[in-house]
Amino acid sequence: MYIFDARLPKENLNAAKMSFLSRTFALRTACIGFRFLYVEMFYKHFRLASPGVPGISLGSSKILNVQLSVRPHDYTTMFRFIYDCALGDSLKRKVFYPSNRMTSLWSLLCLTLMLFVVNVFSIESVSSGYQRVCYYASWSKYRGGEGRFTPENIDPYLCTHIIYAFASVDGSNIGLQDLTEEETLARVVGLKEVSPYLRVLIGLGGWVHGSAPFTSLVSSRTNMDAFARNVIAFLRAWDLDGLDLDWEYPASRGSLPGDKLRFTQLIRILRSAFEAEATKTGLPRFLLTAAVPIGKPVVQAGYEIEKISNDLDFINLMTYDLHGSWDHTLGHNSPLYPRKSESWAMAELNQDWGVTYWLSNGAPPEKLMLGIATYGRTFKTINGTEMGDKAMGPGRPGKFTSEAGFLAYFEICQNLQNGWTQKWHQQHQVPYAYYDDEWVGYDDIRSVTIKANYIKSRGLGGVMVWAIDMDDFREKCGNGPNPILGKLRDVLPNDNTGLVPYVPRHVSLHSTDEVQADNQEYKRVCYYTNWSQHRSKTLTFVPEDIDPDLCTHIIFSFAKLENNDIHTFEPNDHDLYRRVQALKAVQPHLVVLLAIGGWSHGTNAFSDTVATPHNILTFSSNAVKYLRKYKFDGLDLDWEFPGSRGSPPIDKFRFTSLVKGLRQEFDRTAGTTGLPRLLLTAAVSGGRSVIDSGYEIRKLASYLDFINIMAYDLHGSWESTTGHNSPLYSHDQNSQDFAVRYWMNQGAPRGKLVLGLGLYGRSFTLRSSDDHALGAEAVGPGLAQPHTKTDGFMAYFEICSLVVRGWFRQWSNDSSVPYAYSDTQWVGYDDVDSIAIKAQYVRSKGLGGAMVWSVDMDDYRNVCGDGRYPLMNKLKEVLTAPLASLPAAPAANQVSTIATARGPSPTALLALPSDKTTTLPSPKPLNQMEQKSLDMATCGPPSVCPYGWFIPDACNVSVYYQCSFRLAITRLCPPRLEWNIRRLTCDWPSVDTRIMLNVKTTVSQSNSTLTNNKIVSTFRTTVSLPKLLTGTTKHSPKLEKNDEILPTFRTTVYIPEPHTDTTTPSPHVKKNDNILPTFRTSVFIAEAISTTTTLRVPSSTDRTQRPRPVIKYEDCQPMSCPAGQLVADPCDQSCYFSCAQADLSYHACCPAPTVWDDRINNCNWHWVR
């Protein structure tokens, strides 16, 4: 509407309206020149909006580009101000009578204000208060003593947002540094359950991260689109609320000039993806923020301020580190205003200048967060202690922060108590302190109060703090806990109006007792064990390692039964619960149950609970409360076993009563609460004697939603002969097929039966290495492996690695399963072939699905080169594919080597003439540094890891550790490469990668024939332990317990068709020769040019003395790539190529923030290079 003076003559009213409207455009245009004068004037009365607070929006004005917001009780004041300003007598005479003209600048400004306010487009809901954004430095948990800061030290009510620092860019992915980071992040996210209005974001990048990964990321639209998808999956999986980009900095620090525009594009892509995902899922949109500098050269080079401001929810101004020990004079870390004596360049290094610069270039004030540091920068003084006096480098490291030139506030305030002199700088409006030759500029309660009021006066959106872990969180200085953040909370309140409280997302389940008629949706039930987190570091398994797309149900194993209630086994089970539940964000249809019991749990607690009806009712009620509290979708009973193992015979019937009581309670509470009914399942035995003594099958089946048949552990080292862990068929009753048929014959609906598959094997030690068949005599359990560490037991990822390294694999036609052996060690297990057959069996029998024990024993880290989770992926593939015939099993007694899994098996095995032996040279004596690194090697990360060193892993030749800032960072060589202790790089297998081994290769040759124009040769290699550093070999024919060294292995190698001439063998392998690169010896097959095949074994000396070849490139790809070499990527300093046979090259990149260093053939810190 428009407001006109009521005294206007009627005949002039229309003319006045037309004149008024015609001037609107001119007035708005004229307002541009007075924009900032207007903003400063108006902010004295009203604060600009923050997203989410009730207020008045001034629509889509491009002139002011701001939102005005006031609290409801300020509306009257605002309109009175406008009326007094715009409708005074002078203004009315000059504006509303067409014959007059405006001559007053004040009148112009007031009219402009009126035009915008009365032309209100909407009243929006925005937040009622200021944002208080707190960064949490995850490495603060490594500080010692009282300086150590963990997520439990965070007061979740001090901040409106917590940004976890930092994740890193890895190609087009986002990732954390290691598993400890994952645990820490989960604990931070868990604070939202304490403070439901808290928002947790993940920070990406940081100073140490550098620019190179970002530059690579934004180099193509494809990369950025993939990154957006991966970020969304990451944020949903972790139940995070947004992403904070901390690229330091676009178009600086090695970043390309074009990255300025590409950074804007990245932000636009992320914002669009976040909006699309929110629209599609109905979930809240992720926040998108950025941490940015205020230094004029860096800002001008890297940021399109107005454009990025449109897509970012808020912008964190890093208004600190403005001075530090890199300067030659004393200067404050974050002064609010300049000193009068500062030159024009130095006068820009203050918070007020930075805020004004971002505002003047188009950043909305309500989106700017003023950065405040909870630390100070220290100097060594020379003669003076005043600002601008000369300095001579950084001050001494703090007791806990341990960084020269740097002190946390909790260290500074304790120094003040110990005699430091504190002073106040009136022009900067900040304190500083000194003692002897030490000087520090920092913020305290007084200065942050001033800065908080500055935020209010400039109408900024709030404050950002780096970092929450450096306030006086232990209350050592007498001002209460977290005095800096506490003051900011008091001065910059936020009452959360308009915000939706956090509620952990929970998937509604609609269970039914009826079996699906077509059985097309087969269950894939995955048990997850909470003790797998305790394996050795390289193969520790945590909830985040689970691929939720591979399972339809996850069963958390185990809780225990005590006093008719559920209790945890592990001290961190509640945290693990939450992290498993977080997988639902990635796969919303995932169902998570809690298993209670297990083999180690025993039977007594179950027997006590089922002893009386009262106990059963009590447990049923407690179970519902527990499951609802921790967001489980059901309960899995794993009583092993009713009527056995000390359980009285009557427990068979009492177990039925327990199941009935639980089901009735689940039904009742679902009806009264309106929540989906909890599922009820059970893990049951597949052995007939245990079934008969423990289960009333028909009755149990009427109450249970589905039944997990534990059709494994059917044979094991408790027997005197070898037997398979879980044969599909057998001549007796110890088979999976028998268990299924027996349960069905006793009344269990086939649609409720879920067949159990073991992702592990049972191992034996044979009496004789000459008898390795099924049923061979055994003298006890097989040797424990390095990760599962249990005699007679191997996880699949351990078994497949043994097969890759040469164990003989054979197939049993009778049982449709494989087994493997080496010397006197024997294991029966399931692999991809047998899993496929068993999955087809599930479909052919119309069962409800398959269950695996357990998901954490698949090859989830791709140790064996068949991809992550090969068994689970095969299971999913068969159970979800159109019904097909069973795959043909390999022929009985066929020796299936690596070729079985990775390519066609040879049609014939051909022996070469005997008595030709090639022995690899003994290792040279180690130099002092090599010996020290070897001495520090352990199975897992070393406890001593000197900065800049590389330490090998004592148990895994493909793993090494990069020492950085007191941390041992786990690194894994590319497939088929091993860590070379001499060259400090990943290398082809040799005596230098097996420094503790001597590989003696015996090649037996006889009766050579041709098959399909190729000679197929079988190599048998014996591995033995040498005596280090003597140059002599001490053979140990027997494998010692827990050693990962395999006594024998077998490899099939293809050799090209021989020529008839007798020239000297060439060391090069003919291109496209089918040489399998999966065996770990140093046997290289030379091109055969005569009927006599020569094997050449290159030594480490050969490689190190050979001059580096000149590599030519075309389109950033090497035109030649000599096998065994690592060559630089000419187009990306952080990447390199690993060369294989036949001029093949594999592209790889160094971990951030390292770059490729040709001098050492390895990744290195960029400042070292």
From TrEMBL:
Single GO MF descriptor: chitin binding
All residue ranges annotated as the GH18 domain in the record: 130-495, 522-882
CDD domains from the UniProt entry: GH18_chitolectin_chitotriosidase
Keyword annotations from UniProtKB, A to Z: Chitin-binding, Disulfide bond, Glycosidase, Hydrolase, Membrane, Signal, Transmembrane, Transmembrane helix
Gene Ontology, cellular component aspect: extracellular region
Entries under PANTHER family matching the protein: CHITINASE (PTHR11177), CHITINASE 12-RELATED (PTHR11177:SF317)
Stated family: Belongs to the glycosyl hydrolase 18 family. Chitinase class II subfamily.
Name of this protein: Chitinase 3
Organism: Mizuhopecten yessoensis
